[in-house]
Amino acid sequence: MNNQASFKLSPYHQLNHEQTLLVQKILNFAVAHIANQSYPAIFTIYGAAGTGKSVVLSALFDQLQKLSRQKSGKLYKTQNYFLVNHPELLKVYKQIAGPIKELYKKNYMRPTSFINQLDKKQSSADIVVIDEAHLLLSQADHYNNFYHDNQLSEIIKRAKIVILVFDETQVLRMKSFWTRERLEAITHQYTHEDYQLQHQFRMMAPDSLVKWFDSFTQGKLMPLTKEMWHNYDFRIFTDAEKMRQEIVKRNQTAGLARILSTSGYPSTLDGGKHYIEEGKFKMPWDQYNYTATPWAEIPETINEVGSIYTCQGFDLNYAGIIIGPPISLVSGTNQLKVDLDKITDIEMFKKRSDLTDPQEKIKYEEKMVMNSLNVLFKRGIYGTYLYAHDPKLREKLAQLFQQTQQK
């Protein structure tokens, strides 16, 4: 079993029939608009977590770079870039580029670096591929040297063709606040084409369990049936320490098993360790990763708790997920609620001048909390384990799980 993200996202990773056709469709789109000088033109791929968006982009960019070196082709000498606003994923793409002759690390960048570098050189790009476009900044962020209003708009100004992937249910911060409507208000100003990926590739779980996770993050707890995890290791724990012990066992046998958690526990970007405590369970949050290796591939991180910022976009073999204090069960119902006052991630809710309705703002903030849980839910290829901080939710989940064992 090869657990390296660089292997799973390699452009030589075998694509299925739909993905192969999609890569060719996008190549045709790019060639046509470059040849006809009908640009800017935007191609958007929509798809939930685990539907293979990044694999498609990796294969696509490799083909674009090969074509840029073919003298007889219409993409000859095109200047192309691959952008992702996620430092851990960027490390993976640079790892991939190293040994492949047509791929150069310098062509893989964070969006702000791309914008500022092109402006400094007073140059433009031909084709720009954007992974995780839902992480693009949609307001200025002076701390990260972005002084414009919207990264996507600025990228389009500097490129002829833009190809991006987007998932509204993975929007996690107000400074990267997007809805599909807000995205299309930009992309649909131009010549555009949209494509929807449907099939879940990452998780070996049946569709019924994926739908159960989706219902959970939409605020409703559905019944469980044993068929929901046929050939998939799904478990619910009432003891976080016992869940950790099982994850350690899975890590010893299969590798790439980690504990993950939502916000709601002490967390400050001060370089120190901050702990998540649940009964006998006590582990520190993930530390800032200064290495070139993705967080989950560092052996020592079995002793840390991963966050959305270290695991988004990555596969794990097994994920043990702590559903933190902000998410609880409404007494006497199957409805879930979000307590925004219990969020400890100070980066999540930055002020926005374009959200003036307080109720609308609260609605989107609550959705971001559930989006963060959605990201965690969609990590485990072979298994997902759950533990809930809220006593009522923990009891209800255990009850639902126990009922399936008795049938």
Q: What would you say about this model in short?
A:
The protein has two domains: 192 residues, P-loop containing nucleotide triphosphate hydrolases (Rossmann fold), CATH 3.40.50; 200 residues, Rossmann fold (3-Layer(aba) Sandwich), CATH 3.40.50.
Secondary structure blueprint with pairings:
Layout: H1 5-8, H2 17-36, E1 41-46, H3 53-67, E2 80-84, H4 87-97, E3 108-109, H5 111-121, E4 125-131, H6 151-157, E5 159-166, H7 180-187, E6 191-196, H8 207-217, E7 233-236, H9 240-253, E8 257-261, E9 275-278, E10 281-284, E11 305-306, H10 308-311, E12 316-323, E13 327-329, E14 336-338, H11 358-377, E15 380-388, H12 391-406
Helix pairs in contact: 2-3, 8-11
Describe the structure.
- It contains 12 helices and 15 strands.
- Strand 4, helix 6 and strand 5 form a beta-alpha-beta unit.
- By secondary structure, it is of the alpha/beta class.
- Helix 8 runs antiparallel to helix 11.
- The strands form 4 sheets. It has a 6-stranded parallel β-sheet. A 5-stranded parallel β-sheet has the order 7-15-12-8-11, with helices on both faces. A two-stranded antiparallel ribbon has the order 9-10.
- Helices cover 35% and strands 19% of the residues.
